[in-house]
């Protein structure tokens, strides 16, 4: 039996799989997990058969099935919520995974290198990509001021780093969102948070049966 088999399995979700240095990141993240008695599981760990397949619809759907299967086998998850492809929002696939793990009532924590509030990210995106600022909408009934983008869509989730459903699901699962200037430091803080959540819950359970 290897050392990691005794530790809770943690799914390492995020846009990391699309980054050129993905394998190096996952190697470093797994070492961080071991240091806090967690077993990090990369999406790549379940995709050996994918490497030999041609790109296309069937291969893409297979990856989705394999990732779902990995999440089913994991006890918890750590999610990167960095903005994706220069936009304000995170990787949509990762958002789906957060919802899936939340539905299974599994502990989660998140991390990011971008500590700006969501509305600031939206504002910067529209200014840089479309050269249009956000506009204020001041209701006559005294309700709070709302910000609208160039398409007159309300900029929501005030005070949060990402969409309220994303951050809300992570926090409802007991975890926090770690912020740091570099991704390894952010991940390390999130892993420590998750380990405390898991082992703290285990200690409380043991005490109640003592």
TrEMBL record:
One of its GO terms (biological process) is deoxyribonucleoside monophosphate catabolic process. GO terms for molecular function: 5-hydroxymethyl-dUMP N-hydrolase activity. InterPro entries: 2'-dNMP_N-hydrolase (IPR051239), Nucleoside_deoxyribTrfase (IPR007710). It comes from the Bacteria. It holds the Pfam family Nuc_deoxyrib_tr. Transmembrane segments: none annotated. This is Nucleoside 2-deoxyribosyltransferase. It comes from Acetobacter cerevisiae. The lineage of its organism: Bacteria, Pseudomonadati, Pseudomonadota, Alphaproteobacteria, Acetobacterales.
